[in-house]
Design brief:
The protein starts with a strand and ends with a helix. The chain is of the alpha/beta class. The chain is globular. It is built from 13 helices and 17 strands. Strands 5-4-13-14-15-12-16 form a seven-stranded mixed beta sheet, with helices on both faces. Strands 7-2-1-11-17 form a five-stranded parallel beta sheet, covered by helices on one side. The protein has a three-stranded antiparallel beta sheet with strand order 8-9-10, with no helix packed on it.
Length: 378
């Protein structure tokens, strides 16, 4: 295949696609809005699943590199009731199919696997337009343009490529996350560190949930989930860290102090992250010369599958293009026909009533029962 591929977005999905294309000798360029690989922190921990994310890494020929960045012991999982009672304490015995890595480390091994110059940094897509016959033009924020016969939108929730295929835009999903970090946790925050344990900890309740993860070093990363309208969060001044922290913590009055400490004792200012989603089953009619992957195609509320699906999208799209070197449309059709139902199925499961924060079933007891049932049927 001699047609160069233009990818917008150097996230995990776009980079996986670029790597698979490189392995097959297909020319590819990735345009990324960030100014450099170190322009911002790349998020927290990811569990990379053996049924999607690891399959993508196998296709990319990067399993050795992946195993080298796995954080041992982080598959340990605890479920606590709001009073601090431990209802489930599952150790990491090394046999699980979801090893944990830092997102930044995973992105770096993908970047390191590409030839120099593959990623063009500081190229923020501003708009796209169709030129006919499968050709498209991308205009960047600096006024420069690129014309391509094969355009892939790997540019996330607010994709600039998506309008070429779909008029659908993400909508607020009814929940938001407030993030904070606790550093040197075992010595400076021992009660919270003990509650979290060696891996992840979940303390769910209807309308509210505290999730925390032990990251590399001695760092706890807290995700406070709340089912509230956007107007509710708009009343909180997140530029005033102390006031914002206190307001969020009030939603957890009566919870065990070792759990609320994950909010009140944060060493960083709380960061609000609203959750947006595309409709479950979002799809489009085939448009020559362009497609989407990852959140650009099937944005969902956080359910542990987003990064894994994005990488599998990238790997499968790359494989389809390699398998149909003289027929781009056949490759894109093959990819989309597999991607649409796969992403819809995962999104539907992740949005099931039991797993919605606002559900009356969002309790520690129900979560433990679901885990035990899953283990018995697997």
């Amino acid at each position: 295949m001699r047609t160069p591929v233009t990818i917008i977005g150097a996230g995990l999905g776009g980079l996986t696609l670029a790597r698979v294309l490189h392995l097959h000798g297909i020319p590819v360029t990735v345009h990324e809005a960030e100014s450099s690989p170190a322009a911002r922190t790349q998020g927290g921990m990811l569990d990379i699943h053996d049924y999607n994310g690891q399959l993508a890494l196998q296709a990319a020929g990067l399993m050795d590199e992946f195993h080298a960045i796995v954080l041992e012991g982080r598959q340990a999982m605890r479920v606590l009731d709001r009073d601090g009672t431990v209802l489930l304490d599952k150790a990491d015995d090394g046999t699980g199919g979801r090893p944990e890595v830092q997102r930044g480390d995973l992105r770096q091994i993908l970047l390191d696997s590409l030839p120099a110059g593959t990623v063009r940094w500081g190229c923020k897509a501003g708009s796209t337009r169709a030129l006919g016959e499968g050709r498209h033009e991308v205009t960047f924020a600096d006024g420069s343009t690129v014309v391509t016969s094969l355009l892939v939108g790997a540019d996330g929730a607010w994709s600039r490529v998506r309008p070429l295929l779909s008029a659908t835009v993400p909508e607020y999903a009814g929940t938001s996350c407030v993030e904070t970090y606790l550093f040197d946790a075992d010595t400076r925050h021992p009660a919270a560190a003990k509650a979290v344990g060696g891996g992840s900890m979940m303390a769910p309740a209807p309308g509210a949930e505290i999730f925390a993860h032990r990251e590399s070093g001695d760092t706890l990363h807290t995700y406070v989930m709340l089912s509230r309208p956007q107007d509710w969060f708009a009343t909180i001044d997140f530029t005033d860290a102390a006031a914002a922290t206190a307001r969020i913590a009030r939603e957890f009055d009566g919870w065990a102090p070792e759990l609320t400490a994950l909010i009140t004792d944060g060493d960083t200012a709380p960061v609000l992250r609203p959750h947006y989603a595309l409709p479950t089953g979002h799809r489009w009619d085939r448009v020559p010369g362009v497609t989407l992957l990852g959140d650009a195609a099937h944005l969902a509320v956080p359910n542990g599958e987003g990064a894994n699906l994005a990488m599998l999208d990238g790997a499968e799209l790359g494989a389809a293009l390699a398998a149909h070197p003289d027929d781009i449309e056949a490759a894109l059709t093959q990819y989309e026909q597999a991607m649409f139902p796969r992403s819809a199925e995962i999104t539907a499961f992740g949005g099931a009533d039991l797993y919605e924060i606002g559900s009356d079933n969002n309790t520690a007891q129900d979560l433990v029962a679901a885990f035990l049932e899953s283990e018995q049927t697997s």
